[in-house]
Design brief:
Layout (H helix, E strand, L loop, with lengths): L2 E2 L11 E5 L7 E10 L3 E5 L16 E8 L2 E13 L5 E5 L4 E5 L6 E11 L8 E8 L3 E6 L9 E10 L2 E15 L9 E9 L2 H16 L5
Length: 222
């Protein structure tokens, strides 16, 4: 993976951060970037575990932070240098020496099971279909359908609802069929495909990214 300086990634407050504790079996928790002081520290909200209980962290503990920036996956490790409880629970991390940056496609996929409708935009002789996105990242997915919906290379439009917290959003994604698969995970499926996303609007990408991050935080990775 290429190595970057965190200050050059132009991150903004409110970015979702997945926090991994290596000694805790790599379980991930959800935090939010508050901001940073270049070459000094990174401020992140402390994940809450329910009933207003903050994740237990300690000074000098090394954690791994993972996040998406401009549609690529990023990660860095740093030590906790200060813990704060007011006005909210948050912590300071020491400035990371480097940030690993790679394509999102190299990040793990997450279990999705999202019901979708599918339209073949390349060949209109295929009937509109329905199916499910079994797993996905922000650049591709495994799609299973009740009936075949196209051939390798065809451009399809998939539409479905994603739920992030209390918000439900209908998203539409243009994708290319990259492979036909012969293993099925959804009952009544007769066709399965590996698809690569070709066009996602900015607002739909944000919803998709939030959904993927939420599934990762739940431990629904593959």
């Amino acid at each position: 993976m290429p190595i970057h300086d965190l200050s050059k990634l132009r991150l903004t407050a409110g970015l979702s951060i997945n926090i991994e504790l290596p000694e805790a079996g790599a379980k991930r928790y959800q935090g939010t970037l508050i901001g940073f002081v270049p070459n000094r520290s990174v401020l992140v909200t402390t994940p809450m575990l329910g009933e207003n209980r903050p994740l237990l962290l300690r000074k000098e503990q090394t954690i791994i932070c993972r996040f998406f920036s401009h549609k690529v996956a990023c990660a860095f490790s740093a030590q906790v240098v200060h813990l704060c409880t007011t006005p909210i629970h948050y912590f300071h991390l020491g400035w990371p020496r480097q940030v690993e940056v790679g394509t999102v496609r190299k990040s793990e996929r997450v279990v999705a099971n999202l019901k979708v409708s599918v339209v073949n935009q390349t060949d209109s002789s295929w009937q509109r279909g329905s199916g499910a996105v079994v797993d996905l990242s922000t650049t591709g997915a495994r799609l299973e359908c009740m009936e075949p919906i196209g051939a390798i290379g065809d451009i399809i439009l998939i539409s479905g609802k994603v739920v992030v917290g209390h918000v439900t959003r209908l998203i539409s994604i243009e994708a290319s069929i990259r492979a036909e698969l012969n293993r099925f995970e959804v009952a009544n499926s007769t066709a399965a495909y590996g698809i690569e996303f070709k066009y996602v609007s900015d607002i739909d990408f944000l919803a998709l990214q939030a959904f993927v991050n939420g599934q990762v935080a739940k431990g629904a990775g593959r």
